[in-house]
Amino acid sequence: MAAVPPTAQVPSWMTKEYFVEVVAKKFGLSEDDFTIDALDVKPATEAGDNFASKLYRVAVGVSCKDGSSKKLSLIVKALVNMGMAEEMIQMMNVFPKEKEMYVDIIPALEQLYREKGIYVEFGPKCYKNETRPTDSLVLEDLNDRQFRMVNRREGLDLEHTKVVLKKLAQFHAASAVLFERKGPFSAVFDEGMYNVRSKAIFEAHMRPHMETSVKMVRLWPNGEYYAEIMAVLKLV
């Protein structure tokens, strides 16, 4: 049974059976050559760190027929009971876009560099993706390679900023070459997050936030002036 802190809920579909395919793919084993004897599921982020899904860190313990044992840490990204946010995410095709990126596009971009003898990675490996009973992705846990999330309120230092900009440039260059070779990307990328179809639901979602913002603005020196501008612009 999956162990989990009492404050978090584990989706009923996140069972040992769900991860059999992942373990087989990761270690190159037949599904008959091992059993999963331990599964520990915990939230992978703090509250408020992730907006478009829920993230779980899953520790998997494996016993093999040859007597050996293995351990595997995974990140599961899933669309689980998110109310209005879930409707917004589905309208924006967030998971179809992410699936195509992790499964098709990122490996293709990395392959372009390998053809030139350059080893570049643009993201974690994706071991599994599902649409039933909900949209979910099973990804490599980059903590195992000593990657860490930066505090979003503090930002990056100069050294890491340079690393990110270099990787972004490599990504942009490879995407241009891939477009030249393969043609346009999938139609799921034709629309961004904010579009005509999502306008109404975004307005409903953002209105309470804007109302709170206006109340705060009115507390500023000369705040009434700016609050009235927001009202004229129909931001509330």
UniProtKB/TrEMBL annotation:
<feature type="domain" description="CHK kinase-like">
    <location>
        <begin position="137"/>
        <end position="235"/>
    </location>
</feature>
<dbReference type="InterPro" id="IPR004119">
    <property type="entry name" value="EcKL"/>
</dbReference>
<dbReference type="InterPro" id="IPR011009">
    <property type="entry name" value="Kinase-like_dom_sf"/>
</dbReference>
<dbReference type="InterPro" id="IPR015897">
    <property type="entry name" value="CHK_kinase-like"/>
</dbReference>
<protein>
    <recommendedName>
        <fullName>CHK kinase-like domain-containing protein</fullName>
    </recommendedName>
</protein>
<dbReference type="Pfam" id="PF02958">
    <property type="entry name" value="EcKL"/>
</dbReference>
